[in-house]
Specification:
This protein is an alpha/beta fold and 452 residues long. The protein has 15 helices and 15 strands. The chain is elongated.
Amino acid sequence: MNQLSDGLPDLNLPNAAQEAIKNFLSLEATVGVIGLGYAGLPLACCFAESGFKTVGFDIDSTKIERLKDGRSYIASISSQRLSSLVTAQRLLPTSDFDGLSSCDAAIICVPTPLGEGRTPDLTHVVNTATEVSRRLRPGQLVVLESTTYPGTTDEVVLPLLERGGLRVGVDFFLAFSPEREDPGNQKYTTRTVPKVVGGVTESCLKVAQAAYARIVERVVTVSSARVAEAVKLLENIYRCVNVALVNELKVLFQHMDIDVWEVIDTAATKPFGFSPFYPGPGLGGHCIPIDPFYLAWKARQYDFTTRFIELAGEINQAMPGYVVSRTMDALNAQGKTLKGAEILLVGVAYKRNVDDVRESPALAIIKLLETRGARVQYHDPCVPVLRSRHLKTEMRSIPLNSEVLRAAEAVIIVTDHQDVDYRAILAQARLIIDTRNATAPYRDGTHAVVLA
């Protein structure tokens, strides 16, 4: 199903649902977005730009103050775009959750990390749903967008919301709609990516569909919240498993003296039955390295083992170690050791042209290099300062100049940002470990480049 066909109320729905749909379609509703990170902030901006009064909630007071000043902390959201919305009071940032009482929709976009033993940590979801439940009123729509295992909306969020006596599908409305943000993607935006929506009841689905119909080009409805939750996991697991496959082939083909990049690019000329995925130093970001294990955990409740997911995770998590091993071998071939070597990482973000370092393989690579006695520095045009619980101390990006390149015993290209001079790296670096094949357009066979 796509957009609401005529905008008219469905007389078979409860009165509260009909009124809610009317408010969303007329842009009279106030929308609250909880969690103003890489998923929540773009969504809040999209609602505000579509004509809704939008309230953005976050427990991080530093973020709220920056937003009030019209200053963005996410590369894909310009300060100019943000400032215009805040100035016009279309977007109201706050850390006061009492403002939820005046919102007709509360959309939850909070993190869902992994806990000990790769178990789901729903602390942020539970805390947020509890805050919403304390202020829940008749007619409100609540949507969970945080990636999680099938059943979370029904089994975790719903009981919290019903504690006050309001009935789902009659008095208030609950749905799941997975975020599909792709930071750095210039082709697809929040507005143009189809929005999947699954409701706890039919009236919940209709209300949620009406809310999103005003901000995206296409709404895709499914039969339940559980299906919508599973859709998001399938999307991420599909990528995780296929990246693991090419990463494993990369290691094998290296032993066979075969260029995996050439193999993939040639296979991609087949017009059917093949979609190219590319190897790298490991997976990063908040989604692909984490979300598949939500389903793996849930599967164990059904006495089912998700062998593909577990194996893909093991392969991808081994890639930083493989990069370091290749670096050690390349230095040894030059009569050098990793211990005491000056190593320069180019790119520490988890993907090209973004400033996001969450779960970046660069963090594991730095830790492994330092454990083995290397002296590590980095250059990243998108990440001026690198902070992580995985690192001993804060690090700062250094300029990519001749002095730096010539001083490094090895330059490891971890992230293939567009704004990096790869010709200069080839011309001046003594040894290059290229995990992304970023130097391919400029190599002529005379450079000391090791693919890893």
